[in-house]
Structures are given as structure tokens and as C-alpha cells.
Design a protein that fits this description.
238 residues, mainly alpha, 2 domains, 67% helix, disordered N terminus
């Protein structure tokens, strides 16, 4: 592969079987999260390993469970409505493991499995939830806007540069960073911020360069003009 080639597989495909398995695996992860919090799964697991594990902050854990549900529901919309490209099996399986890691980690960390007492709700918790909802809107809302625009035959073969994508070439990725930052703030655990930091690194050095190569090849001068006038990831900054 040369420096001018892209690893993105952007060909259109229903990938129905892959999507269904992917969503099934995510549903198992969400079901496991429900079991951990609502049916004392944490305590049962602790007993199995000879440990006295418990959720020290049940209210925060339940709010985080609702955050997990929101992410699960948005994933369903993304898979079965928004995504038209082929989804490789490696991507589906790899992301399933990643979903399991961050969803369960954030749930347990915020639920206080390593704390002795609950953390009182403060103003930053409200800010955290606002960030999570805002990031969710930026990600899914921008994708829906693009989906509706592309359904118009007049726009076939053109690069989408309107709506939320006017403010950032990858506003959907920026939305992910915002929502995960809010999610991590709500856990009251500094170590969880490794997750959005890792995502930022992956976006900047892997996903965005790869997608930009694909878009430049497909849309040519139209994309280059868009890239010159629009920030790459963070509106007004970068």
C-alpha cells in the first residue's frame, strides 16, 4: 500500500448478517450491564471470586446504565438505518470487544466498585450529562442530516458539506469525543479519561487521515475546497 492509498472499505453493502451479529453482541453486553446493576451481578461475581464487591453508588450506576441504553439504541439506528457501507467481520468483532470494555468499565467505575461510599451529585454531573446528550446529538444528528441530503438524486456524486458538517469535516467524531468526555466526567474517576484520549489519538492519526484520502479520491477538487475552508475535527480550533 502506498502513502496515497486508503485502507477504508467504503463500498455499499447491506452487510445484514454482520450487522445483526454485531448488534446481537452489543445487546448481550447491555444485558450483562443490566444484570450487574439491577440484579446484583456485581455481588455474585465477587462471591464467585471470593471478593466482597458491591455497588457503592447505586444512583450514579443507574444513571450510567441509562447512558449505556442510549448508546445501545443509537447503535441500532446507526447500523440499520445510517450505515450503507460494507462492515467487515473484523470491525464488528473488534468494536464489540471495545464496547464491552468501555461500557462495563464506565459502569463499574461510576458505580463505585472501588469506593466505599457514594459520590454526591454535583453541578458537574449536570454538565457531564449535557455534554453526553450534546455529543450524541452531534454524532447522530450530523449523520441523519447527511443521510437525508444524499437521498436526493440531485446530490448524487457530490460531497456533503452542509448542516453540522459546515462546522467540522468530522463533526460526528467530535460528537463522540464530547459525549465520552461527559460520560467519563459522570463516573468521577480520572482513570476513565484514558478512553476519550485514546479515541482522540485514533481519530487524529488513523481514522481521519484514512477517510480524508478516500474522500479526496472520490470527490477531488470539491473535497479539497471543503477541506481548505473547514476545520478538520474541533470547530473553530482544529
Amino acid at each position: 500500500m502506498t502513502a496515497k492509498e486508503t485502507t477504508s472499505n467504503r463500498g455499499h453493502s447491506s452487510s445484514l448478517l454482520t450487522k445483526s451479529v454485531f448488534f446481537f453482541l452489543h445487546s448481550l453486553i447491555f444485558s450483562f450491564s443490566l444484570w450487574l446493576i439491577l440484579w446484583n451481578g456485581v455481588g455474585l461475581l465477587g462471591s464467585f471470586w471470593g471478593q466482597s464487591w458491591e455497588i457503592a453508588d447505586p444512583m450514579r450506576a443507574k444513571v450510567l446504565l441509562a447512558c449505556t441504553f442510549l448508546y445501545w439504541a443509537r447503535h441500532a439506528v446507526t447500523l440499520f438505518y445510517l450505515v450503507v457501507r460494507k462492515i467487515p467481520w473484523g470491525e464488528a468483532i473488534g468494536l464489540s470487544f471495545f464496547f464491552a470494555f468501555f461500557e462495563i468499565t464506565l459502569l463499574l467505575a461510576g458505580g463505585g466498585i472501588l469506593r466505599d461510599s457514594p459520590t454526591p451529585m454535583r453541578y458537574w454531573d449536570i454538565i457531564a450529562l449535557i455534554l453526553l446528550l450534546t455529543g450524541s446529538f452531534l454524532n447522530s444528528g450530523s449523520e441523519i442530516q447527511r443521510k437525508w441530503w444524499k437521498k436526493n438524486p440531485v446530490n448524487k456524486g457530490h460531497c456533503y458539506t452542509l448542516g453540522l458538517f459546515r462546522h467540522s469535516m468530522h463533526i460526528n467524531y467530535f460528537g463522540d469525543l464530547v459525549l465520552f468526555s461527559g460520560w467519563c466526567i459522570f463516573t468521577c474517576s480520572l482513570v476513565t479519561f484514558a478512553i476519550p484520549l485514546l479515541m482522540l489519538i485514533m481519530f487524529v492519526f488513523l481514522h481521519i487521515p484514512d477517510i480524508d484520502l478516500y474522500l479526496a479520491k472520490r470527490y477531488g477538487e470539491e473535497f479539497e475546497a471543503y477541506a481548505q475552508r473547514t476545520k478538520k475535527l474541533i470547530p473553530g480550533i482544529f
